[in-house]
Amino acid sequence: MKKIIVTLSLLLFAFGSASAGVYHFNPTPADMFDLDHGYYYGWGIDQDFGTEKISNVFLTVKNVNNWWPEPNMLFINMMDQMDAGLYVGDDNKSVGLPNDIQNFYEGQGVVVDEWTDTDGGPNGDWVDLNYDFAAMGLLDDFTAFAADGNFGFGFDPDCHFFNDKIQLTVVTDAPEPATMLLFALGLAGGVVRKKFKHKA
Questions:
Q1: Which residue in 51, 41, 20, 77 sits closest to 143, CA to CA?
Q2: Which of 166, 159, 128 is CA-nearest to residue 29?
């Protein structure tokens, strides 16, 4: 019986000490070639989160600024399926002219943002774009997209957006303590029944 109590204590300690997981993802290169306006970008990620529950997701574009104060738009779409890695294609939907600003990924996935730099150029502010998926109501979409272990993002810069780094952070919760406690008790109960059955 002493062994059972020790085993149960160790299981409870292990489950009770489980903490949230934090996963960081960056494309290669991390600035996506400074998001040149002549191209569209697809960033696919393979990641199986297993039984961990996704509690929040953050997407950040660090220190971004459009190259010149002119009409511009940075489109960001969250995608359900996308081959892993960074893919760059010629954007024949836009040549940098105001009337040609449109999202290459229009109608695909879920729109995260359509951002305009209101003071681009060498004298403009360099800002961080921070997207909190839970606050934006996008967490359920991301969770559904990531369920099969693959998801991604489409970026279409209609103008040239210099930046330092693009990063995705996924925060997960450990399995619920009550569920793990029941699992531990079930294991211990099985050991007890086996021991008493053996004595009989």
A1: 51
A2: 166
